[in-house]
Amino acid sequence: KLHEIRQSITVCGCSDGSVEIACLERNKLIGVYIQSSVGVVHVAIVGSRVLIARLDGSIEFLEVTLSSERPIRVLSITLLNAVRAHQKPISFLLTSSLTAVSASYDHTLKLFDLRSCQLQSMLHAHSGPIASVCIDNADNTLFSACEEGIICCWSMISGELLRTMNVKITGRTYLSCTSEYLLGYTADGGLILWNKNDGTITNRIAQHPAKLENTFAARNLIALNNELAVTACESALTFWDLEHKALIRKIDLGCVIDRLLALGDHAVLCQCSNTIYRINSPIVRIS
C-alpha cells in the first residue's frame, strides 16, 4: 500500500510486518519500522502521523519525523499507541483531519482521536462484514456499507447513527462522495446516486445488460470531482459523467486493478499488482 506523506515520500506496509519509508526523488529507502511480524494490510497518513493496520485487527499509531533540509531523511519513528481494534481483519482504514476510522469483518467500525490516539467511538449497526467506507468531510459524516446491502450514515462527532439505506442488492457496494451525492457502485455493476442530505435515490446509471460484471469481481470506486466518477472491475476502468448520468469511457488495462487513487481532479492511479498506471480522464462534451 503506497501513501504520500510529502510530495516525494511514500510509505509501504509489507506482508512481513515491516513498514518502509522511501524517497521517490532519490529512489531510495530512507526508513524502516519493525515492530511485529504480522502482515500490514492498510496504511493511512495524516501530516506526520502514520497509522498501520495489521492482519490480526490491531492498529499502530506512529509519529514520523523527517528532516527539513534535503536530502530528506527520517530522523525518528515513534510508536505512540498500539490497540487491538477488531476481533477480525480490518477491511478499511481512513482518516479525516482529526479522526481515524477503521472498519472490519467483525461488523463494527471504530473512531479514533488522532490527537490522543485513543478510541473515540464504536459504531455497531451492521449485520454483516463491512465492505466499504467513505468520509464526507464537508458534513462530518461517515458512510458505511455491509455485504447485507445496508448503508449506514453516522455522525463523525458523536458517533450517532443518523439514518440507514437499503441497496436491495446483496454483495459489496463500494462508496464515495461528492459535494451533492453519495455514490454506490453495486455488485451488479450499476452506479447509484443518493442525495446525501436525506438518503433518497436521485438516479441509477446501469451498464448494458450484456456487460454486467461478475458479482464477485474485484471492484473499486472513487469520485474525481463533482462531475466525474471512476469505477474499476477486474481489468476494466470506467468513467462516469455524474452531471449527465452517463457512462462516457471504458478502458481495459489487461490486468486486475487492485486499487484506485485520485490524482487531482482529472486523473487516476491504478495499482495492478506491483505496477501503477496513470490514466487521464476523457474530455467529453455532452450536449
TrEMBL record:
GO biological process terms on file: regulation of cholesterol biosynthetic process; SREBP signaling pathway
Membrane topology term: Multi-pass membrane protein
Keyword tags: Endoplasmic reticulum, Glycoprotein, Membrane, Transmembrane, Transmembrane helix, WD repeat
Mapped WD repeat ranges: 123-164
SMART domains assigned: WD40
Entry annotated with the keyword Glycoprotein: yes
Gene Ontology molecular function, alphabetical: sterol binding
Keyword Nucleotidyltransferase in annotation: no
Major location category of this protein: endoplasmic reticulum
Residues passing through the membrane, by range: none
Cell compartments where the protein resides: Endoplasmic reticulum membrane
Recorded GO CC terms: endoplasmic reticulum membrane; Golgi membrane; SREBP-SCAP complex
Protein name as catalogued: WD domain, G-beta repeat protein
Organism: Necator americanus
